[in-house]
Structures are given as structure tokens and as C-alpha cells.
# Entry
Amino acid sequence: MSKQRAIGAPFLIASLLSPFACNAPNSDQPSANSDAGMTSGGAGGSGAVATNGGASAGSSGGVSAAGSPSAGGAVGTAGAPAGAGGSAAGSGSGGSPVAAGNSGNGAGGSASKSGTSGAGGGAGVSGSPASAGSAGQGACTLPVVGSKGKNPLFSDQYSADPAPFVDGCTFYINCGHDEGNTGFVMKEWFLLSSSDMVTWTKKIALTLKDFKWADANAWAGQMVKKGSKYYWYVPVNEAGSGMAIGVAVADSPSGPFKDALGKALVDDAFELSNMGFKTPPDTPFTIDPSVFVDGDGQAYLHYGSFGRMVGVKLNADMISISDKMKEITPQGFFEAAFLTKREGVYYEIYAAGQNPATIDYSTSSSPLGPWKYGGRILDALPNVSGQDAATSHPGVAEFGGQWYLVYHSSNGPNGGGTYKREVAIDKLSFNADGSIQKLKPSAGLSF
# Structure
């Protein structure tokens, strides 16, 4: 989201049919619930019931339960075959998950049920591995082959500045609500959600009124999950001052949210004190926060605009900063930072150049840089005659083994433009070396 900054004056914001393991929100932690390994135990004559995935003895046997899934994407151990004779058994039930972070094979299934005479059961089938960096919550439903979504996701209202995250089997996008005609008018934030990447719902989940100390500019924010709580970091205008970053917290991604601090997390005064600047005009533009929770639980905050990006660790409470904030700007950065991680590499996705901005990315071995420029993901969006140059704002997330880019368009079906933007989503592809393939906006996702 592009904004023109004038201290003491108004601001202009120019800004997959099989089960799979879902991904955790903004995290690189291993799976706690990978798909269960299935065993098919046969029934014997009339004998004892097998336990822990072992073969059943005698004539009366049954279904051995599934092996427990292992953490971190490891495959559950197959259940052993049951003894001969007895009725054929069905599939085992799902095993209970191994605690996250523990490696190794899943444990054997629970005791089989007794049955009548029939054929012996076969060996168990191994469990499905979870994708890297996921914390799946059982089997999720893939999009139906042949189904097709649409871009933009919604055209009944205008939406902008999207940031995605995945929680369980739901893909969420938080974004702003464009209501202006000749300027940026934004007073609330939407929460978009889908479990199949085709059908989406939309609701107002947070408003400026939730921050008593703010009086304007519900600009580009981002929601993340830490523990059992959901934190929504948003830039708003601090009454009597300039742009600042607030934090709302809830027990559910759909709210209700409440102001976690009752004041700004970062504002000009904090930057002056923390970073050593002399006057407010010297400080970075305090907008476009991106928060990433790493696999070890440490959270990082990035923000900034006009070619300056700040980075710092957040404390464990997610609502305070103890470190010194530093400028860690990647090559070509303009604004709209989004930090994520894939296969041990940190990716900074951002609007680059100037409006009409492109979407570029850089990589690092650390969430605080230094950065190596990676390339371009999306070209600049088209302008609408008579309006300010088109803005761009990216976010990326992985869902069911597929990565996606969310962004907003400026030439939607309702006229569009700089002040009437609409959120869209397309598949994102990586090369074998980890580089990101360039994409073009589509009319909607296809499966």
C-alpha cells in the first residue's frame, strides 16, 4: 500500500481426491497430526485378540487399529498382518498423534475387535507423511478435480492489502476494506476464509473502533497464531500523531478481537527512543507490519515503507519489544513486507520499486537478514486513467502442499482503480533450487 507521508498533515495511502495434512499458520514447525497409518487385521479361529498392531491368534480376530502418526512428517509404522482364518477385517481407525517435535515411527495400533470366521487380514498400510513445516489436524478435503475459483475473490465490496495464514484445514486472508472514490477511505478489516480454495466467505472481523486511541486508516495488517491466541497487527493513525502499529488479540481467527495494549506497539515516540532518531520525520514510516512465528516459537516483526524496512524480535507475550529495532531493507524494497519460511530459507516478499510497484522477493538464512535478492514474482498491475498509480501488496502461504500468492488487483469488474481494489489469489511455484517462478494474474484458481 503506497502512502504519501506528511508529518502533521493527512496521509495518502497509495498502497487439490485424497486427504492431506494441512499447514500451520506462519510456522515452520513439524506436523503434530500427520495422517494415520492404516492396518487391516484378519480374524483367526477363536483365539486371543491381537494388541498393538500384532497378528491375531486363534479363530476369532478383527480389525487392528491404525498406527499412530509420527511428528515432523515421518510415516506411521504399518500394522502387522493378523492370523489366518476368521472373517476379513476392515480398516483400522486413526491412531492418536505423537507430540509435535518428536521423531520416529508411529506406535502400533490398539487391540483388534473379535469377529466371526473368514479370511485372514492383510498387512497394514503405512501412514501418509505430512508436508514440511506443517502442523496438520487430520485429513482435510482437497479441491475437487475440475473445480475452478474466480478472481477477484469478491466483487460486491472492495478489498485490499491481503495477508494469508493457514489454521487447521482453513485458509484465511485478512485484508482491508476500500470505501473511497478519490482517496483512501478504510475503516475496517475483512476476514476471508475457505476450506477448499474455491468457495470463500467474508466477514468484518476488526474495525478502527476497536482501537480507542486511533482515528483513521485501517491499513495493511497481518494476523498470526501463537499458542492458542490469534494476534492481528495493524497500522492505524494514532490520534494527534502519525501512523502507528496496534495489536488486537482473540481466541478465534474470527474474533471477537480486543485491543491487546490499549496503546500503540510501535509509534514515532517509540522509534525515537528505541532507534535513536532525533525528530519524527527521521523515523521510518510505521506501516505494513508483518509478523512471523518461527519453529522455535520466536516471533519477528517487520514493517516500513518508502524504501525502509525495520526488523526486530517480539517478546514471548507477542505485544512487546525489548531489542533494538534495526533497518534491514532488502534490495528494491518499497513497502508491504511479508516474511515466511520454506525448507529452512527465509523469504521476504514485498512491493518493489515505486507505484505501480512490482512484487519481488529476497532470501536469507536469518529472519533478520542480510538479504539476497531473488527476483520478480509479479509485474506491476495496470493503472486506471485519472487515478494515482496502482499499488501492490503480497502475501504467501502453503495449503495442502501447494503454495499460493495473494495480492490485490486494481482493474476489477466494478471499475476498480487505486481506491477500489479487490483481493485475488494464484498458485505459487518454486524451482528445485528454491527460487520462485514468475506468475501472471489469472481469472481464478483451477484444480
